[in-house]
Write a structure and sequence with these properties.
This protein is 38% helix and 16% strand. The protein is elongated, with a radius of gyration of 33 Å. A hairpin with a 2-residue loop joins strand 14 and strand 15. It has 14 helices and 23 strands. The chain is an alpha+beta fold. It has helices at 17-20, 108-116, 118-126, 138-141, 151-176, 178-195, 200-205, 212-237, 325-330, 378-386, 388-396, 408-412, 421-463, 478-497, and strands spanning 13-16, 27-28, 37-39, 55-56, 64-67, 72-75, 84-85, 91-93, 97-100, 145-148, 272-275, 280-285, 302-305, 310-311, 314-315, 321-323, 341-344, 353-355, 364-365, 368-373, 415-418, 501-505, 508-512. The strands form eight sheets. A five-stranded mixed beta sheet has the order 2-5-8-3-4, with no helix packed on it. A four-stranded antiparallel beta sheet has the order 12-20-17-18. Strands 7-6-9 form a three-stranded antiparallel beta sheet, with helices on one face.
Length: 513
């Protein structure tokens, strides 16, 4: 049995897992466990030894494995998920879970922590069979080397592991509170910005800046001029002169319907409310329809944005697709430019918004609503859309299905607060500086969480090298445990040869005629 490894302390034995454990093969039919608690792999958290709940055993229709309070359960399907737990109740579980009953020769918490080690998970993953649904068999798992400590030391090791893990868990819980606090700070900052509170002192020191009314008048003129230039270019491309009344085709944007938004907060003097359509050259929607056959390699294609690429104030290139230049040319209406405001119209991240950054020569999109703000408004509008008020307005204007859709009309009508360009710049700079500090804290939290994970792994590694607690020469050596296990297994084998069926649980033998 013993492998006599030189890497273990005196009094320990290096054996295989199968030398000291026997996984239970006890099964039950559905009719036998209607009132039992059921555990599937989905009820066991990865890497935490915790359960997220139990299932409805009455709804289970196939044979299941039986476990009892104190047994260790090990998920053999996709073992890289490291799903191991020890329920404190009797029940049934998925047959993709191995059940290790309690034993008189082994502290089951010691076994639990051994099976939870990253190195055990790595061994199981490397030795699993199957590609889409990899599983580690009980036989192969049983071949892993197992450092058997004296029983008294096992208990000391378990106590030390759990005391240290309790401290790292408390640290994680403290870190988990940082994220919500930072989000509260972020939203408070944005709320103060768009109430005008953030720059109240700045306005007092700069009373002569251009008021929003004048800025919006200039933007209306700029919007019409941009339209006229585009129309002249169209006629020139056809080698034609514009007709006499061509300017009459220009449509003034619909002004903000103040009666539809009676709950908009009051703005400071010099500010004003408008809507996206009034301050944009146009508001439109990306291509809707089949696109995959036009995908091509990045080195020859045009970047093609989808909803997943739009994140709050960030254009993500994760999973970015590319379309052929020829297809891009046919999609004139969904071509994007730097500064365009993108809005996810439907799906899990509906309402997420960001601005197209500089650096893209050509860009196209699918199923995304976008506006092309006039002048220098784009960064300010992008920031407003991140605020709780901006998000509430966007999501509140959803239409259609149960999940809701943010359509082009909704974005065109979206209320937008406006102040002077100078004050917009002051707001953006102040918020960016504050959010840089927030991002530094987020990075520090992430690093701390990573450090805690490494610490937990180090604790387990030290435990099973015999370095976590001191050895006691008065402990009964592990070799004596192994001898008792050998004798019990020999007795079990004799019982089976004599025609008796023996079930072994918790280190006790029960024979049935």
């Amino acid at each position: 049995m013993s492998k006599k490894s030189s890497d273990i302390p005196p009094g320990w034995e290096s054996v295989s897992l199968a030398d000291v454990t026997i996984h239970s093969t006890e099964k039950a039919e559905p009719s036998a466990f209607r009132d039992s608690q059921y555990l599937g792999l989905e009820h066991i958290e990865s890497g935490t030894n915790r359960m997220s709940g139990t299932g409805d055993a009455g709804a289970v229709k196939s044979t299941k494995a039986v476990f009892r309070s104190g047994d260790v359960l090990y998920g053999k399907l996709r073992p890289y998920l490291n799903k191991v737990c020890q329920p404190d109740f009797d029940g049934v579980c998925s047959t993709d879970i191995l059940v290790f009953p309690q034993s008189d020769e082994l502290d089951n918490r010691y076994l639990l922590h051994f099976l939870s080690r990253p190195s055990t998970s790595e061994y199981a993953t490397q030795n699993a069979s199957g590609i889409n649904l990899p599983r580690i068999s009980a036989k192969v798992l049983g071949e892993i080397e197992f450092p058997l400590a004296p029983l008294a030391e096992q208990r000391r090791i378990v106590a030390k592991i759990e005391a240290l893990q309790a401290r790292t868990r408390q640290a994680r819980e403290a870190l988990a509170e940082v994220g919500p606090l930072l989000e509260q700070f972020r939203q408070s900052l944005l709320a103060a910005a768009f109430r005008g509170d953030l720059t109240a002192d700045w306005r007092a020191a700069n009373p002569n800046v251009e008021p929003a009314t004048e800025l919006l008048n200039r933007i209306r003129q700029e919007r019409q001029q941009k339209w006229e230039e585009a129309e002249i270019a169209k006629y020139a491309a056809k080698d034609q002169q514009p007709p006499k009344d061509w300017k009459d085709k220009y449509k003034e944007p619909e002004p903000l319907d103040e009666l539809a938004f009676v709950d908009l907060p009051e703005l400071p003097d010099g500010w004003g409310w408008t809507n996206m359509d009034s301050v944009s050259y146009r508001v439109s929607v990306g291509h809707v329809g089949p696109t995959s056959k036009f995908y091509c390699d990045a080195d020859v294609g045009i970047p093609f944005l989808r909803s997943q690429n739009v994140r709050p104030r960030q254009l993500s290139t994760d999973g970015l697709n590319y379309i052929t230049p020829e297809f891009h040319e046919t999609l004139q209406k969904s071509q994007l430019h730097a500064g365009d405001i993108l809005v996810v119209r439907v799906g899990a991240n509906r309402g997420d918004t960001c601005r197209v950054p500089d650096g893209y020569k050509e860009l196209n999109c699918a199923n995304i609503v976008f506006g092309q703000p006039c002048g220098e408004l784009s960064p300010f509008i992008e920031l407003f859309c991140q605020s709780r008020l901006g998000q509430t307005l966007l999501l509140g204007m959803s239409t259609g299905s149960a999940q809701g859709v943010i359509n082009t009309k909704s974005v065109a009508e979206l209320p937008i607060p406006v102040c002077s360009y100078e004050e917009q710049g002051e707001i953006i700079a102040t918020i960016d500086a504050a959010l840089d500090g927030v991002n530094e804290i987020v990075r520090a939290v992430s690093e701390s969480e990573s450090d805690l994970t490494q610490l937990d792994q180090s604790i387990l590694a030290q435990a099973f090298r015999g370095e976590l607690v001191p050895q006691d020469p008065n402990d009964e050596p592990a070799s004596v445990l192994l001898e008792r296990i050998r004798q019990q297994r020999e007795a079990l084998s004799v019982g089976e040869k004599n025609g008796k069926k023996t079930t072994r649980r918790r280190g006790k033998k029960k024979a049935e005629a």
